[in-house]
Amino acid sequence: DLGWISTVHVNRPAVVRHAEQIRKWRTVKGNWQAAWLLKAVTCIDLTTLSGDDTPSNVRRLCLKAKHPIREDLLKALDMHDKGITVAAVCVYPARVTDAVNALKAAGCDIPVASVAAGFPSGQTPLETKLAEIKLAVEYGAREIDIVISRCLVLTGQWEGLYEEIRQCREACGEAHMKTILATGELGSLANVYKASMIAMMAG
Fold first, then answer.
1. Residue 145 counted as domain residue
2. For residue range 133-159, what is the model confidence (pLDDT) as tens digits?
3. Structural domain of residue 193, as residue ranges?
């Protein structure tokens, strides 16, 4: 609904005030803090996105993904038998097969996520983005992290952004898709809001 998108407005002073209030909230302590930190670990994608990634450092990352917390700490918290792992292992498409094989060899079912769609810049033709997504899924990625073309946001091409994300979602097939907005490059909080809504509308 482009009519609705065009009316989006963000009250920046109110957002800043609310952010300041959040900073003053008291944090949880003791066992509650440990519980929240352990929960946070299970939501993390353990990631390596280096130009010098090799099968061996991907294997090491996968072992860390299976055992992200030292065993003695888990025993002290009586959490050693709860199967605490990270949420996923995230790599470039070329390393997906390495990660899938390493996790299988380690006997765990942690999903492999892959960045795609021209990560990190997004400055890649759509056809190439779609091909990269399909290859990553073919290699065994169960999650795809796409990155949007910031140019579409900065120039107000909202239909184009919707269509790009929709086609990326379609290319993922059964794989879960996450959309990276690169909010620091979108120019305004209103653009961040609009891009977020369009990403959700596009699936």
1. yes
2. 999 999 999 999 999 999 999 999 999
3. 112-202
pLDDT digits (tens, 9 = 90+) for 41-88: 999 999 999 999 999 999 999 999 999 998 988 888 888 888 889 999
Q: What is the pLDDT of residue 3?
A: 82
Same domain, 75 and 64: yes
Question: E-strand spans in the chain?
Answer: 45-47, 88-91, 112-116, 143-147, 176-180
Residues 92 and 116 in one domain: no
Contact 123, 149 (CB under 8 A): yes
Output b/e per residue, 119-144; b: 16+ Cβ within 10 A: beebebebeebbebbbbbbebbbbbb
Domain boundary (53, 82, 110) is at 110
Structure tokens at 23: 């900073």
Same domain, 98 and 117: no
Distance CA 22, CA 12 (A): 15
Q: What is the DSSP string of 83-102?
A: ----SEEEE-GGGHHHHHHH
| pTM passes above 0.85 | yes
* Selection from 99, 94, 1 nearest residue 52 by Cα: 94
